[in-house]
Amino acid sequence: MLMMSFVVDIIAMLFGMPRALFPEIAHVDFGGPQGGGLAFAVLFAAIPVGSVLGGVFSGWVSRTRRHGRAVVLAIVAWGLAITLAGAAMLPAGGRAVPWLWVAAACLAAGGAADMASAAFRSSMLQGAAAEEVRGRLQGIFTVVVAGGPRMADVLHGVAAGRLGAAWTTLVGGVLVVVLVTIASALVPSFWRFEPGREGA
């Protein structure tokens, strides 16, 4: 279960974190200045803002028992949000500024979904890991959380050179949905996981 929680998070971050492309998207797709500007700031702030709002309204997390299903659905929601954000970037062409706010809203929704995923995965780690290895697994958890977005920066940068930044964002979101769905189908026990459930 814990290995799968790391795998699905790596999928979510590796293919669905287009952060490295935000400067180009802000400048090329939304007509912002090269040095930064409103579009740049909005894109960079959108995911963290969504995470904060997701945390503020996270009371429902403690009432959810099916943690495996919740993780998969949260990551699928993240992938869909990134897909829609990429789609919102396509027609912009530096002209349609309102699309910036559509993209930002999608990214914020993704941030809220990512917060939910992180909460459930952290709970799974604390509950399922044996006490003698919990510290080491927490270290792996930290490496995955910190390293996944950095690997995504490289992957998205390479892909954007071929597809363009907006298409790379959109395709990455689709890949998150497809790959996480496949992973959960291959390991159905992860989908069914509930804390304290015998044989889960």
TrEMBL record:
The chain crosses the membrane at residues 39-58, 70-93, 99-120, 165-187. Residues 1-200 form the Major facilitator superfamily (MFS) profile domain. Keywords: Cell membrane, Membrane, Transmembrane, Transmembrane helix, Transport. This is Major facilitator superfamily (MFS) profile domain-containing protein. The keyword Transmembrane helix applies. SUPFAM superfamilies: MFS general substrate transporter. It is found in: Cell inner membrane. It is a multi-pass membrane protein. Its main location: membrane.
